[in-house]
Design goal:
This protein is an all-alpha fold. The chain has two domains: 2-72; 93-310, MetI-like fold (Orthogonal Bundle). It has helices at 2-28, 42-51, 58-72, 87-122, 127-141, 144-158, 169-172, 178-211, 214-221, 226-264, 269-279, 282-310. The relative contact order is 0.14.
């Protein structure tokens, strides 16, 4: 297992380096955005561009980019957005908003999705199962930003239950205040619908298969009640596939929040990434691309390792 983990980590950094190189070269092939003089320290930006080697070949620029990160953890400053501000500092200021809204949505989706999946598996081929399965297909097929528009129209505009846009930190007082949570709730709901449907589908499929196993019949013949057999044996085996999904789904909704954050005015890294692409801010684009790529690759390793932790019979990297 140790050799497997080390191998996967090395492959992860190799993949990250390849993707990072491709992103850097492709974005540098685009025309260099002009410096708008209003509200900017032009001399500072010109000095930064000279330090990053903007007037040198792309490979030299890439070397300087990597050197600044490795030696000084310097990701550059904003040029077209958040002018002259440190890229890393801006990211760290906005990251809590993204983490919080996605964390709330995944915490809402896990119990509901697994609960609906268990209920559908226990009512297999009955009307309850058919109803839940139909709703699951509908919710999986519709993107999260469609739910965002529907929630914004009906719950926020028509019924007036929530604000159309996220409350500012100054008005809410704290990120963990009830006022902030209630203004985040429309975004949380729009992100959680698809995740609930995914958990429901996989839980129903795995549990339905497990319930038909011979060992379940053996457990019943040994005197266990149906509830005991399900909780002690069926659910435990079904969780081998479901638990690793939790990390994967968290990463998925983190990516899905790119559009949702813009719809609800959430000042997170998702909206920061979209804006950096639109205005061609090289430094923010590279930092955000590396951020999302690293999270996606790291989650894959965590998912694989979790299989061996949940079920000791699974040994990653074994030749036998």
């Amino acid at each position: 297992m140790g050799k497997y983990i080390i191998k996967r980590i090395l492959l992860m950094f190799l993949t990250l380096f390849i993707i990072m190189t491709m992103c850097f070269i492709l974005v540098k092939l685009l025309p260099l955005p002009a410096i708008r003089e209003m509200g900017k320290d032009v001399n500072l930006i010109l000095a930064r561009r000279e330090k990053m080697g903007y007037n040198r070949p792309i490979l030299v620029q890439y070397y300087l980019f990597l050197r600044n990160i490795v030696t000084d953890w310097d990701w550059g400053v904003g040029e077209q957005m958040y002018e002259s501000l440190n890229v890393w500092s801006v990211m760290m200021q906005k990251l809590p908003y993204t983490i919080l809204v996605n964390l709330y949505s995944i915490l809402l989706a896990i119990p509901l999705g697994i609960g609906f999946g268990i209920y559908a598996a226990l009512k297999k081929n009955k009307w309850q199962d058919h109803l839940i399965s139909t709703l699951v297909m509908v919710f999986i097929s519709v993107p999260s930003y469609v739910y965002a528009f529907l929630i914004q129209y009906f719950l926020c505009f028509k019924l007036g239950l929530f604000s159309l846009q996220l409350e500012t930190l100054r008005n809410a007082g704290s990120l963990f205040s009830w006022k902030m949570f209630s203004s985040m709730l429309p975004a949380i709901l729009s992100l959680s619908f698809g995740t609930i449907a995914n958990f429901t589908r996989y839980t129903r499929a795995e549990l339905s298969e497990v319930l038909t196993g011979d060992y379940m019949l053996l457990a019943r013949t040994k005197g266990l009640t149906k509830a005991q057999a399900i909780s002690r044996h069926a659910l435990r085996n079904a969780m081998v596939v479901i638990v690793p999904m939790i990390m994967a789904e968290f990463i998925a909704i983190l990516g899905g929040s790119l559009i949702t954050e813009n719809i609800f005015g959430i000042p997170g890294v998702g909206s920061l990434y979209i804006t950096s692409i639109n205005v061609r801010d090289y430094n923010f684009f590279m930092a955000m691309s590396i951020f999302y790529t690293f999270i996606g690759l790291a989650s894959g390793i965590v998912n694989d390792i979790s299989y061996g932790i949940i079920d000791p019979r699974i040994r990653m990297g074994s030749k036998k």
